[in-house]
Task: structure prediction
Amino acid sequence: MTAGSFTADAARALGGPDWLTARRVAAAEQLAGVEWPTDAGEIWRYSRINDLDLGRYRPLTAEELGAPDAERAPGGGPFGAELGDHAALVVVRNGRVVHHEVAPELEAHGVTVCGIARCDQSLIEPWLASVSDASPDAFTLLHDAFLAGGAFVHVPPGVAVEQPIVVLHWADGDGLASFPHTLVVAEAGSEVTILERHASAARAAHLVDSVVELAVGDNAHVRHVSVQEFGAATWSIALQRAHLGRDARVSSSAVALGGDYARLRTEARLDGQGAESDLLAVYFGDGEQMHDFRTFQDHVAPRTRSDLLFKGAVEDTARSVYSGLIRIRPDAQKVEATQSNRNLVLSEGAGAESIPNLEIEADDVRCSHASTVGPIDDDQRYYLETRGVQPEDAERLIVLGFFEDVFARLPVPALATPLRRAVHEKVGHLHGRTT
Result:
């Protein structure tokens, strides 16, 4: 694999503020010598990374990024309506913020919501990549080289944002690549909920290389929800990383339903004593989809806690991969950490891999991990069918029940209904193909 058309000249031509252009060019100049990953590497094991040909894609030009669009994020309006009230709305198209609106009372409390390329440099530059740079790889470098903007949320100390801040991401353009970025800074004692929805044109062969950074100050609480509904020809490679201060908390939920190949690397670094991280995920693959999750619960400080529950289902010839690591560093005594991955395989030809890992360097900790991969329980199916439930309805009920504990823990309860509907439709498609 080579960088192809992703050159320093292309990065420079994107324009924007001088500080952002300089940052992009510096990253692009490193791409010529970067070592691109293969599935021989442990963190890419079982992936489809060998199938990726960067030569199929090119970055957008400044003119394409700046072109006016009549419909900025197709489907975003109905999605936002289902969520109900929100404190702010940001629309990101192909990595660039094209619209944002903020409730006046939010601005009155000093909350900033804006596009990265248009924000006050003194406010954003100290934070940009301060979290993601701690976990670099070839794709974060590519992302930095072609970062055109993205969403920035800054919550001042002690401010609680009651309603969710909604960020709608849309990607389109056949043979193009886009690089969405979301940077959330929650200062000490603050509280905020961020809900991001990622979608793309149904048939466009598009590459999305995205980064989400969550900088969570002492005693702050960030709830982050990501809903991924990419079109069937989209490849997505994403990093979400959080740094937590003392007594800080992150509640992170990921929902993955779309894409051709969709990879999400979720990391939480618990730097401050008393920090807590809760990671949830629901994923459902059909057709030839592949959902690929890699997680890292990194306990640096003592008396920290993390809990992870990822649940997925696959049908047809879809595949899923989960690989997770809990690391307990030497000074992280009195830590509690759990990791659980459960998978349903609904048809022959589908497959799921689950690889939980522990790395413990402290001696006073409580840690556990668990994983399961298997079909629907025959006893559950028999129980329902003997009570008059049709076989296809029994399967839908069992799958919905399998995901229900995750739906019930979502930090935005209004999401549960559309997600149940999406799962119901996916199971229904299976029966439609086999009858």
Observations:
- The longest helix spans residues 416-434.
- The chain is about 20% helix and 40% strand.
